[in-house]
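General statements about sequence and structure are easier to judge against a single worked case. No coordinates are needed to read the tokens, only the vocabulary itself. The sequence in question and its structure tokens are set out directly beneath this paragraph.
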Amino acid sequence: LVISLAVILSSFFVHNQKLIIENELRNQGLSLSKNLAYNSEYGLLFKNKEMLDKLGQDMLKNDDIAYAAICDSDGKIISYSANSTLWMDFPRGIKTSYAAVNQYSYKGNGVYDIITPVSTIKEINKGEGLIFDSKDSSIGQTKQENIGFVRIGILLENKEKAVQTMQMIAFFISLLAISGGIVWTVLLTRRITIPIKQLVRMTTMVAAGDYSCYYVNGKTRHDEIGDLTTTFNTMTKELAASAKQIEDYTKNLENMVEVRTSELKDANERLKKLDELKTNFLSIATHEIRTPLASI
């Protein structure tokens, strides 16, 4: 039960931590992607590759970024930066107008591919002129138009390392919990079995007629073992008292038998003497009666 509980709790802990790390990494990528899309608006409008390249290089300062691509509305890559040659050919031919988060495995490496559209505000009633302040209502009605998108890759390597670390922590916590559970189980078992074994030994002694043994180790316990000890000691005391009463009664009975036997012996002796006196009397009486009769 302890092992099962430890495994279940560890699995739940690792799964929960994995979800937390994934959410943090995804949110971090979305935040970086939105920030890059916001900063890339004017570079895409004016096709300023140098400005876009600088933005991409700045993104790579974050160790979790594998690549950063800035594309126009036709999906053509205007600027692309990668932290290694591994990712040079990865993002190709994707065109989108909405934000998306996809997870890919590329050459044994996991990555979150996060796409965020780059939009700007255009005037729709006065010659399609560009405006740069959406709050200026004097220019006319405006609309939001996607002029491209940015695409960044968030490495899952750090997430996987963090998950592995969590798994190791969970393993050691489970091992500690299992060890503690085993020690606790052994101690609890000894706490229960040792008094019971001693009580069994005492019961055997009582059954053999030794009523002088009392179990005192469980008197201070306030559980079932303590109740059993109290009951055992009470029973032993009552048996000892009963045995003493029987012994005393037996001794008294023996004394009474001896007294009665002595009295019967005395009575028998008296009866014998009376019987002899009777016999002598009859003999004398018969003789005395016969002598006169013979003379007559």
Observations:
- The first helix runs from residue 2 to 39.
- Residues 36 and 169 are 36 Å apart (CA to CA).
